[in-house]
Specification:
The chain is of the alpha/beta class. The chain has helices at residues 24-35, 49-60, 91-98, 106-113, 130-143, 158-162, 178-182, 202-205, 208-216, 238-244, 300-315, 320-329, 381-393, 404-414; strands at 16-20, 39-44, 64-67, 79-82, 103-105, 121-125, 150-152, 172-175, 191-194, 225-229, 252-256, 265-269, 272-275, 285-291, 340-344, 347-351, 362-364, 367-369, 453-456, 459-462.
Length: 467
């Protein structure tokens, strides 16, 4: 059975559409498509009380629901709309491919429902930090007086937002997961960023290469800016994804870094977030955006999030003052795992539970940080890597566990000044005018003044190590 691409609301009339999944995205898509005149059948392999309750609500609205069978394709289907979590290898999709039926996701449906004057998308993805960066971006856009919302893989389903009409918003901050990007081949954002890449959801994607390729889809067809992480250490890097993307003529590659920025980058100088990308003279000037203290919490990974959000906002034409005001107004949601206090053997111990990627070292601003505070002793390169990551990130961690003495001794040997200290006054790092900066900004006072300088709002800043 053939399938045709639908692009406008009127084109959904009379279509026989199967929606895979009875979750938030699936229900949103089913209701939207049924409201546009399509004949919708929702399929889901579950059959519990919660599924029955959701199914009853949809049936009351005239939407067919089939529970307990998520493998066979309903007869007469000419389009499948899937919820994000369904694997590409699902039997339902194999049956659709055999019948010549297209499979798309709810994000693709939202994109095709947009009218000619719809709000542009500023899109965010990455292994870590997507939600925080999207919320920061929305806060900045709101501070600029723009009508916006944080949507996609966060909060309100994006289909519901699109159905509010083309004139409801000026711009949308859109968080997209790799699942959503896999099923959204037509999305073309105004500007987009991949914050970082680390092995994740490989059971779903099949390989790291496939995972990175789906993340990289966010850059396809970008109009103004492809924002990438200069400090990324994983391969492929986010810059590699930009190089491989097919974008609109004139679209720029914009980097963000925790160090002093080169031209066409955003970075940190003397504790100030600066923009060397969207200024008249990128070789000699930079625009002050905010101070590190304006970002809460001011941890390195969160500074990187703020720089990425600022880059997208600046690509949309937002003024520097709105970036500052938006970052000051933003407060992150409570973390999924809070720091807990536990009493062990009469002693009160604080167990730090940061956002660390499963089965691998923690990822902070693109810098891999080994977990040295628990488990068996780490040797050789692991301790050297920890020393490097701590110096880069500015993090200080108190060793705990059975091997804390070994860890404390190793840190004393490899980092006698201690992690998180500011650099020595006589240490300089690279010439950014040549685009080869090896570090960022230190404190303005007490540093040598004979190194390369960068003019930020009329003030010359010497380039020092940032973290």
């Amino acid at each position: 059975m053939g399938s045709r691409k639908v692009t406008f609301a009127s084109d959904w009339q009379g279509r026989n559409i199967t929606v895979a999944g009875l979750g938030v995205s699936g229900i949103s898509a089913a209701r939207a498509l049924a409201g546009l005149g399509a004949s919708v059948t929702v399929v889901d392999g579950g059959s519990g009380a919660a599924h029955e309750e959701r199914a009853a609500r949809l049936r009351a609205e005239g939407i067919a629901v089939r529970l307990g069978d998520a493998e066979s394709l309903p007869p007469g289907t000419d389009l499948v709309v899937t919820s994000p979590g369904w694997k590409p290898t699902s039997p339902l999709f194999a049956a659709a491919a055999e019948a010549g039926v297209d499979v798309i996701g709810d994000v693709e449906v939202a994109w095709r429902l947009r009218g000619p004057d719809a709000a542009p998308w500023l899109a965010v993805t990455g292994t870590n930090g997507k939600t925080t960066t999207t919320q920061m971006l929305a806060s900045i856009l709101q501070a600029a007086g723009l009508r916006t919302a944080a949507v996609g893989n966060i909060g309100t389903p994006i289909v519901d937002v699109i159905l509010e009409g083309d004139d409801a918003y000026d711009v949308l901050a859109v968080e997209l997961s790799s699942y959503q990007l896999h099923w959204a081949p037509s999305v073309r954002a105004h500007s987009a960023t991949v914050l970082n890449l680390a092995p994740d959801h490989l059971d779903w994607h099949g390989s790291m290469e496939a995972y990175a390729a789906d993340k990289g889809r966010i850059y396809e067809g970008n109009h103004v800016a492809c924002v990438y992480n200069v400090d990324a250490v994983d391969k492929p890097s986010t810059e590699d994804l930009v190089r491989e993307a097919d974008v609109e003529e004139g679209c720029r590659a914009i980097g963000f870094t925790l160090n002093a920025p080169a031209p066409s980058q955003l970075g940190v100088v003397d504790g100030i977030l600066v923009d060397r990308a969207f200024v008249p003279d990128r070789q000699k000037q930079a625009q002050e955006l905010a101070e590190i203290s304006d970002v809460q919490p001011p941890a390195p990974h969160n500074i990187a999030n703020a720089l990425a959000a600022a880059a997208l906002a600046r690509a949309f034409g937002v003024q520097a003052t709105a970036v500052r005001d938006g970052l000051r107004a933003f407060r992150p949601d409570a973390p999924p795992r809070r720091a807990r206090r536990r009493r062990r053997g009469g002693r009160l111990r604080r167990r730090l539970q940061g956002h660390q990627h499963p089965r691998r070292p923690g990822v902070v601003g693109g810098v891999r940080v080994d977990r040295v505070d628990r488990g068996r002793p780490r040797q050789g390169r692991h301790l050297r890597r920890t020393r490097h990551a701590q110096r880069r990130s500015g993090c200080a961690r108190r060793p705990i566990g059975a091997d804390r003495a070994l860890i404390r001794e190793a840190l004393a040997r490899h980092a006698p000044r201690g992690p998180g200290r500011r650099p020595r006054p006589d240490r300089h790092w690279g010439d950014v005018r040549g685009g080869t900066a090896g570090g960022g900004a230190g404190s303005a006072g007490g540093h040598r003044a004979d190194g390369p300088g960068l003019c930020v709002d009329g003030h010359v800043h010497q380039l020092q190590q940032a973290w």
